[in-house]
Input
Amino acid sequence: MLKITFPDGKHKNYESGITGSDIATDISVSLSKEAVAILVNGDQKDLSDPINEDALVNIITTKDELGLEIMRHTTAAQVLARAIKNIYPEAKLAIGPTIENGFYYDVLLKNSISSDDLSDIEDEMKKIVKEGHLVNKQIKNKNEAIKLFEKLNEPYKVQIINDSLQENDFQIYQQGDTSFFDLCKGPHLPNLKFIGEFKLTKVSGAYWRGDSKNEMLQRIYGTAWRNKKELDSYLFMLKEAEKRDHRKIGKEMDLFHFQDDAPGSVFWHSKGWLIFNELVNYMRHKQENSGYTEISTPTVLDRSLWEKSGHWEKFQDNMYLAKTNDERIFALKPMNCPGGIQIYNNSLRSYRDLPLRIAEFGKVFRFEPSGALHGLMRVREFTQDDAHIYCLKEQMEEECEKVINLTLDIYKDFGFENVKIKFSDRPKKRIGDDDTWDFLEKSLLSSLKNLNLEFNVNKGEGAFYGPKIEFVLVDAIGREWQCGTLQVDLNLPPRLGANFIDKDGSKKHPVMLHRAFFGSLERFIGILIENYAGRLPNWLAPVQVAIATVNDNCVEYSKTIANHLSKDGIKFKFDFRNEKLNYKIRDLSLEKVPHIAVIGEKEIADKTISLRSFPENKLASMQLKEFLKKIKNSCSIE
Output
């Protein structure tokens, strides 16, 4: 008999070979009708898979996020793939994984398709779903699987099987008694009736296995949801996101650009650089008030340091490397921590010096595939608002609480009140012993519980050197952006020789906290642009006031007003162009300038300013003193 334990801690004995479907039926008829897959000791399995040992079992339905992901996977691997084969019999199927909020399938087609063809494919998908076939699974060995897909003339499936290290247990899924078969690690829905609402969204190109030396395939993207309401809500969000695209708005506001001479690196224009530096100054002020000192470490470091830290083994493929004439190998730093530890190590440290909070605005370099690059959101060269806190074990919880509180306060300054917190524990591939991980995880969890904060647990998603907390911002249209992180580490300090002299005169290693609030400044700016649709908080706007003149007679008076603005630290610009006033106002509004001061003959005569402010967008006449007070208050972070 097997002992099956359920998430609530209860357990029951079953015969060996019991399936997820049998267990769901035994629990309740209603659950058996809703079940789509199971978790067995944390591993996803099909309902039909037998269980042959004691296990922790969780029944999955489409109400669960994991069930929704399985539904999306089945929509891609079974419904979309078969629809493509029905319409384009010559198509060769490659892969069809899930992605955030949806899925895609890569296919080789004789003739290219466009977005105009997606409605026909959708109609075919709906017909397939309506048929309501069972999704049956067969297990084959390597030779059997190769023969099947050679017979089906699916070369990409054959290549996947040939390249696999396994010899047995290839999972083959078939829809009912149709001739459609697919190779997949699963699990899949047991029946196509569980498919909810879906929409194909776009078509793009993608190299087979991401290698430009291979043939170009067509990638068909889609999204799938439990019901029409969820789908409509997501599609509305997509339309809003398109309007808010930071690349489009960044061009309109003249903030930055990208070009092929430096793929994945930002060319900051003057106004964009103003925003960047405003964020740096803001963070410097916050950090100074919280007891941080600031450092700067080299960009280029010898490979030996990365080997000691463990980054060479984990991240070598994403490093920019260079060999010098003296045969030394250097890397552009992908992370700041190994360099930061060298500054800690440069002085003899006592327990009295701890906690020691050291911040750095460090530029890092990571090679990302060209297909993954996305404006400011995914780049190869970026600046982190990094900090490392060295502390005693008994100081760790308090330091973590301070970081968490400061993180949430910072996000409020930028209008992010809805922040989700995720705790990630030890991954399978890690450094350090279990006792160290036990201590770090317990302490980090305690800091969250002490602050009475809600959080979700991401099993196995910690850094290779320690558990972490992630801060996820929810923006104005409901999208989630992972930004800040707090990681606790007792593994890197001994690797890189970081220690302190304790009360008894012995050398000990400090706990090291890795902390970032913005994460990447480039990405955070992209998030801000999209969250505010370009209308950044007035204190952060690159131009806070535009002085627009009616004619050339108004220039001198405008300069007088500008002198007062300059003394108050207000960022302004002139618009002396020989254009109609309405045209100027329209242009300045597109640039997202929050305040437009209109100067004409009447304003000069009355010694006033006509002010047009967003979002009221109505001209209001006022005296200079009132104008300066309004602008100063409006552009203050307080």
The first strand starts at residue 2 and ends at 5. The mean pLDDT is 94. Residues 608 and 623 are 5 Å apart (CA to CA). The longest helix spans residues 65-87.
